[in-house]
Amino acid sequence: MRTARAFTDRHFGDLGALYRALAKEDVAPSDEFSDRVVPGEGPLHAGVMLIGEQPGDQEDLSGHPFVGPAGRLLDECLREAGIVRDDAFVTNAVKRFKFVQRGKRRLHQRPKTDEIVHYRWWLAEEIRLVDPSTVVTLGAIALQAVTGKRMTLASLRGKPRAWEGRRLIATIHPSYLLRIPDADAKAAERERLVEDLRMAGQD
Ligand code: URA
Q1: Is residue 7 scored above 80 in pLDDT?
Q2: Residue 203 pLDDT grade (very low, low, confident, very high; cuts 50, 70, 90)
Q3: Could you give the CA distance from residue 18 to residue 22 in angstroms, rounded to a whole number?
Q4: Which residue among 77, 90, 92 has the greatest number of ligand 1 atoms within 8 angstroms of its CB, and so is best to mutate?
Q5: What is the spatial distance between Cα 72 and Cα 62, in angstroms, rounded to a whole number?
Q6: Ligand 1 in contact with 111 (CB < 6 A)?
Q7: Which CATH number goes with the domain that contains 123?
C-alpha cells in the first residue's frame, strides 16, 4: 500500500495535475475499493470546501461527488443555508467507493483508519490547492481525515475552530439524516445541519 509518508515532499501545481496523478498512480488500499477515483469539484479558491466520506454507488458510476441520495439532500440543505453549491468545492476524504457486492447491489463499507490515512496526503494537497477559508467536514470520517485524529463529532459540532489558518466546521454527514426513523428527530437534525452550513457560508 502507498502511504501518506511516501508523498509528503511532493506538490502539484494545479488540481488537474493532482487528479491525473491520483487516477494514474493511486493503488487502491484493498480489493474492496472501486477501480475508479472520484475527484473533487468546484471552483479553485472557493471560500467553502465541503468534505464527505467517500463516493457512493452513484458517484462511482458517474465520476462526480455527491450526486446520489445524500448529495441531493446536501444540495437542499445548502440551498436553505444560502450556499450556492457551484460556488463551493465538494470533495471526499477517501477517493474511491468501498463496497461489498450483494446480488445486484453494491453496499457501502466504512473505510478503516489506514485507508483514511492512505488518502490523507491527497486530501491535504487538495485543500492546499483550493485554499478555502472554511473547511466543512461532513461526518466523522471526514473529520478524522482532516485533523488526523479520531474526535467525537459531538465535541466540535456547531463550534467553528481555527485549524491550520482556516476555519473548521464539523457537522454530520447528510446520509445520517436518511437513517433517522423518527420524523421529528430527523427534522431537528436537518435544521442543525442547515445551521452549520449557514455558519460556513457566513465568512
Ligand atoms: N457520500 C459521500 O461521503 N460522498 C459522496 O460523494 C456521496 C455520498
Answers
A1: no
A2: confident
A3: 6
A4: 92
A5: 14
A6: no
A7: 3.40.470.10
